[in-house]
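Subject: Integrin, alpha 3b structure
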Amino acid sequence: MSPRLLLCAVLAVYQGTPTCTGFNVDERFPVIKEGKTKGSFFGFSVALHQQTGGSKKYLLLAGAPKEKAQSLQNVNETGAVYSCPLTTVSNDCTRMDLVTSPSEMVEGMWLGVTVASQRDQPGGRVLACGHRYVKIIQGGTEEQRRMIGKCYVRSNDLTYDPNDDWQTYSYEVCNPSFDLELEGMCNMGISGGMTDTDVYIGATGSYVWQGNVHVTWRDPDPLNAWDSIGKDFGQLKKRYSYMGYSVLEEKKLLTHDDYTVVTGSPRDESKGSVVFGTKNDKGIESVLTIRGEQVGSYFGSSLAVTDLNNDDWNDLIVGAPFYFDRMNDHGGAVYIFMNENGSFQKNATVVLKGPSASGFGFAVAAIGDINQDGFQDFAVGAPFHDSGKVYIWMGSKQGVSERPSQVIEGKTVGNNGFRTFGYSISGGMDMDDNTYPDILIGSLDDRIALARPVIHLTKDFVVMPKIVDPNQCPGNTPCITVTLCMSFTLSNGNKDFKKNISKQEPVRDKLEPVVFFLNISLHEPKPKSRRSFQNLDFFPVLSQEQKLTQRTEINFQKECGSDNKCSSNLKLRAQFVDSDKKPQGKFQVLQFNSNMRIVELMVNVTNIPSAGKVAEDAHQAMLNITIPEALRYSGVRSTVRPLEVSASLICELGNPLKANENVSLSLKFETSGINLYTQEIESQLLLSTVSEQFDLKPVPVGLLIENTILPSFSIENALVQTNFGGTVMGESAMVNTSDVGSLVEFTFNVNMRGQPLGDLGTLAVEFEWPFEVANGKWLLYLTKVVVAGESETECRPPEPVINMLNLTLSGSGPRRTKRQIVGDDQNTVVVHVCSVGVHRVLKECSKGTARCVKFRCPLLNMTDSAKIYVRSRLWNSTMLEDYSNAEVMVKGEATLKLITDKPTIRMDSQTTTFKVEIKPVEGVETPYELPLWIIISAAVAGIVLLGIIILILWKCGFFQRASRREMYEAKAQKAEMKIQPSETERLTEDY
């Protein structure tokens, strides 16, 4: 469904008046006509119609395309066309009898989408169309439906005449035998109208929504009216152009005597176009195309032609309701193309633009000469602006002005019931025989207005004297005389009018003249409500073709020379200063921090003559200072509520600031608006005076901001005391961090004391941690660092400094078995010590007695404050081995630093020292591990002793081997000994 099928239901008729600017159409006596069914879109299309046959009268025609069906079986909604008489009764409209055959597919046909009257013809007929009419054809065994649309023509009295060939002709001009590739979905009737010989109808769906226009010609001779010829544009291979969305046929466009078909294609090449066509033997030939300028503007969705400059050629008016200009807040446009002796330029002569989202140009219509000045006028609808508006433009010899002569708002007409006033417009016909054409306006609601007579008057307006000295007018003494004389054609009012005027003290503007304005208006009584039409002769209006205002002036006497003009020479110097009022060049660099509350601006203004320039009085000398967003003017205080100070500060320097004078100002501003993102503050200072001086320009005064943040950095427990004792445990035997030694924990606090850094940088704490003594043994073994800000996270530096042995954190690992404990104890030696003769030892990296590792923990999740928990373990074995009889003091450092790449933000680093005081536990078994040198010495001594033993044995011949003879003798002796019986054997043998 196209966008124009969505709005309107109710109409209004307005009568033109013979006035020009202000109120060409009377709004006080509207004739309201309402539809029968809510939601029927009554007023979607409208037309003015004169019934000349039978009962002569003027009728208002209104389409209601969503109206319920009338007396048709199994049909719910067909649409309808209503005719309304010119009365003050709102519900006296009559439905035209159009749809009579239930065999047709008339459900949802949108009858009334187009309504037109055959204007300026005796016995002019009426055209009504429904573009969604469906034709049913039989294609074999299947039923085929083609949405081709249908139109009806009825007599001047809105009845059906079977003897009239105009009416008996079936206006179903699209061939339903083809599919949408041709005209099987042509939607004929979405627009249309009639001339004295033609019925022209738009069909947007032809040829895959290329669109088309069908013109049916009939012989003007009633005896030959049966003879008809149909013509159209044919297939132009421009799919989805929507040709025929709007259409009209008029003379005096390209030629004086021949009709020219003009149709809108609002989707042609996405920008829309208007096509001019001339009829020939083959059909309608496209001879001129005017294209739109903006994609999606729907250029060509509405059309009108009329002679705006009275040159006997019709000019073209094109609506583009969806045009938009976001920068200038425009929505909708109307293009005026002036006819140049039968030709049109590609570019519009005038482009009228409406307010944003108003639908300005949704409807355009020629409305005749409503002010009777000899030039045709036109109306533009903007149905979506507030309650809807209709803009009236007047034609003239120069064409069309950019401003409308009148704007009619829906909410000001009738009982304020309009919502889309101006959706459809018809005009150009005098409906009440007062010689002024009237306007019919459609909407979702109602309305009408009538013309009024004109008053012509003459006037004379004089003010004396021309120059007055304000010092010569004390108190209420009159010193200025104003004379007004006028005559007019209607009844005289009060002829004797006198008014005394006195000056107000003090007189501020002595340079500019005192201006007197004469404004003429007419008292308009409120009319009484009545059922019949009001006699507009009782409600005259002033002719606005005459000047209704007049201006004259007098001057004050000044000390500015013989020409009575003052030429000043104001000069300005200004600079921001620090607390000591010391400027630092053109741009002062402000070292800003949260403790700074006030900044000052020093200004000096002079009015001193210079080379080639005089310095006369500077009247109303003012200094305008734009206050930067980051500063607040501190010269005003309120004890009740905070004051809203505007972005500008105006200082009066003198009235006048005389020659050779200078003025110095000191302005104080609060810095409450400066934040970390503020890099520069600039204020514009502009001098002004009503005296003549043309070289006054804004003077910029700037201040560069270098932010210094002042966070606090502290440690809750700067000194931690702990003890050591027990047994020495080797590094390889340790599993949990508790095996290392006693817990040493520090808590560091960081408070931002100001705006969070955000993405401008990050605070970080850099530690210098004493993790080893000078000989490389462990000292303070880091186990975990936690940063707690908005959330709690662990600090994990890129270098391996935390839990380097990957020990299980105490409380989180598996318990050790007894076998593991016994095995570990085999590597330790228990030493019993007693802390006698304790001496003090200092372990500090800067003194070389300890080795430190540096690592950094960024405070990534910090906004206002953060805590850093540093957990470590004292290496118990190192203390037992090397410092069993000593008290050890360990020192380390933590520094808060700023990490940023922004040169305008800085911070002084803050360093704090933390200490660990370590003492042995007295009278306990102290594990002692043998020194390595003892083990090595014992091994060497054992080797030497073994060598000596071997040497002695060698000297004794222990290692010498026996000879072969001695070996045999020894073996024989052993054999002999073996065969000798023992004493036991002998005794046994005896028993």
